[in-house]
Specification:
Length: about 220
Amino acid sequence: MRGLKWRATDAFLTRDRSHSPDCPPAGGQPPLLLLHGTGGDENDLLPLGQALALGRALISPRGQVLENGMPRFFRGLAEGAFDFDDVRRRGHELADFVAAARVAYGLEAPVALGFSNGANIAAAMLLLRPEALAGAILLRAMVPLDTVPKPDLSGKRVLLVSGRADPILPLENARRLADLLRTAGAEVQHETLATGHALAQDDLRLATAWLNRKD
């Protein structure tokens, strides 16, 4: 299954062995599903994922929607404005991809690690297909859907990290996402950093502490 293109949706690609889980994660830890931001690809979050992995398998697909030549996980209508029908379709496609990867490699449900567009598709998956993920680290995410379903997220942990000076994602929108996930039963930790939209060293610090937390 190495280098597999997922024919079920023809939408995602793990290009080679370094980007696909060749063995189950050490210590029974769930794998990380790395979801890049607009203009990124399957390589972008690998350094962050490897820093956090601690023996976990990494799954790193490339978004197959192109916006001015830049890969994304779903269509945008304008900055901060989404094609909600496409969000739903792509969210289900990504959930199907995860299900296929779990069968192919014998993996547990992954924890999504998404940035910006990748964080938004991860949030959509939590709301649309909660069984696909064990939890999520959402870096610079906002509410991804116009009509929000009512999933049962009991037992799922979510770390949401926002930038106080983010010019793209309003902080109030991120707070609304945190409230939606909590209402659905998720345990949500929402942190706000003194930064903008770009990733900062504190994102790694917070994600590391969150993943290593012992309940």
